Hints:
This protein has helices at about 5-25, 30-35, 40-65, 75-90, 95-105, 110-140, 150-170, 175-185, 190-210, 215-230, 235-240, 245-260, 270-280, 290-315, 320-335. The protein is mainly alpha-helical and about 325 residues long. It is a multi-pass membrane protein.
Amino acid sequence: xxxxxxxxxxxxxxxxxxxxxxxxxxxxxxxxxxxxxxxxxxxxxxxxxxxxxxxxxxxxxxxxxxxxxxxxxxxxxxxxxxxxxxxxxxxxxxxxxxxxxxxxxxxxxxxxxxxxxxxxxxxxxxxxxxxxxxxxxxxxxxxxxxxxxxxxxxxxxxxxxxxxxxxxxxxxxxxxxxxxxxxxxxxxxxxxxxxxxxxxxxxxxxxxxxxxxxxxxxxxxxxxxxxxxxxxxxxxxxxxxxxxxxxxxxxxxxxxxxxxxxxxxxxxxxxxxxxxxxxxxxxxxxxxxxxxxxxxxxxxxxxxxxxxxxxxxxxxxxxxxxxxxxxxxxxxxxx
Length: 335
């Protein structure tokens, strides 16, 4: 059995086990009664939210590629988006998703030196949108985290927002170059010139933002719209069991959940996502149904795009590409 098939079987087994445990730990007799009133229209709402979220994701990708001086046909846009889902699920920390995006862009005529910054900006803008939303969430919502007061959460969120914005500026300064050089010299891991070259490559990517600020602002807005519609899959599925949906509060919690998932060590956030979902949304659903919604959310938001991505990547490159991408992602993790 080759590396791709082996990793696919392991991932499939883990996903089935996590989903079964999630449902078993939350389902009771009350939830079985609730299934009798299941509203199938919620699946349609979830599919629409997924489609609109993907539309804005594709729109921002096309805009970034255009800023870089290239263009992408619709099949290429879809392959990049779904290829990201596919490889992110196969690799810890979703590291393979970025590698896959760069290589797919390369196959459509976008050089690696241009594709890497585009992928980097996509990720940075997504995280930046979530970080910017944090102060608003903690000011207007009563989200509680054990051992941390609401006031502390607000302060921490403001600090994170300021650090994220200031960090984009500081990366461009000579102070950062000096700091990187000293760190490379002190740690002895790699040559200082190599570290400075990576910093230069990073700054070259961010130069796309500064070259056309208004277009970059549109990319940021499209990033936010894409994420919000993708997060709306959760309240859409909740409609299957209850019509008393506080969509603003649910989206607030989805933003917090997905920001945490960016740093989850498991492939695709498996296990972490389900546990956080249950913790954050139990109060919003009838007793015993939160596990069903958690699994449904993962299926619509992650597993369906994963299988579409698997088909699109295999038809473009085949299994050898996937095996090579996994190896590249693993090497990047250990470098």
